[in-house]
């Protein structure tokens, strides 16, 4: 039995598709129209992809670490991690980039794993402030580094396509833990690292 057919306490694929039909009709459309016949199925499939983060524990990505790093203990920064998320207030997209840094404490993790942690939290209904804190706290809890820094820069479609209709606006949030919070020089170094990547190619 596939996950979409599992009815034990979960919404089924058929129920999700019916909900899409209701919204189409509420918006003034006819869900039986030829161009919309497969739309409920497509929307349900898209939602399964967009919100796949609920099915994954991001801590698992950080479980495998490497200790043979010749004593390296300087800052590690991964810049410009592109993400797509959705605002939990309007279910509208949040598109942006995250920058993640940490100060290793005897072990490091593969850099792709940092990007995957960002992706897991992004693929949930989110508030950007919460997502920023979740990414930082996850890395801190699992790797136990001397510090973690996360900066997220996101454009919120709930603001650009509805409401005030302000385009070209993005929101920046940050979360600093450990030495990044306690030491202004360490924090400034991280910010210089991510700023040096702006607009490069």
Automatic annotation (TrEMBL):
Keyword set, alphabetical order: GTP-binding, Hydrolase, Metal-binding, Nucleotide-binding, One-carbon metabolism, Zinc
Domain of life the protein comes from: Bacteria
Enzyme Commission number, as recorded: 3.5.4.16
Short name of one Pfam family: GTP_cyclohydroI
PANTHER family reported for this sequence: GTP CYCLOHYDROLASE 1, GTP CYCLOHYDROLASE I
Family: Belongs to the GTP cyclohydrolase I family.
Protein name per the record: GTP cyclohydrolase 1
Source organism of the structure: Pseudoxanthomonas putridarboris
Lineage of source species: Bacteria, Pseudomonadati, Pseudomonadota, Gammaproteobacteria, Lysobacterales
